[in-house]
Design goal:
The chain is mainly alpha-helical. It contains 1 helix and no strands.
C-alpha cells in the first residue's frame, strides 16, 4: 500500500551525543566503583 498524503517522514535526529553522555553517566561511577573494589581487596589480602 502506498501513502501519498504528502507528509514527509519524521526527522531523524542524531542521538550519538546522548548515547555518549548516557555511557559516561553509567560508566564513570562503575569504573570508580571497580577501582575502589580492587584497591580495598588488595588492602584486605596484603594487610
Amino acid at each position: 500500500m502506498h501513502d501519498d498524503s504528502g507528509q514527509s517522514p519524521p526527522e531523524v535526529r542524531d542521538r550519538r551525543p546522548l548515547i555518549v553522555l548516557t555511557w559516561l553517566w553509567v560508566g564513570a561511577p562503575l569504573a570508580y566503583g571497580l577501582y575502589e573494589l580492587v584497591r580495598k581487596a588488595s588492602q584486605l589480602f596484603t594487610g
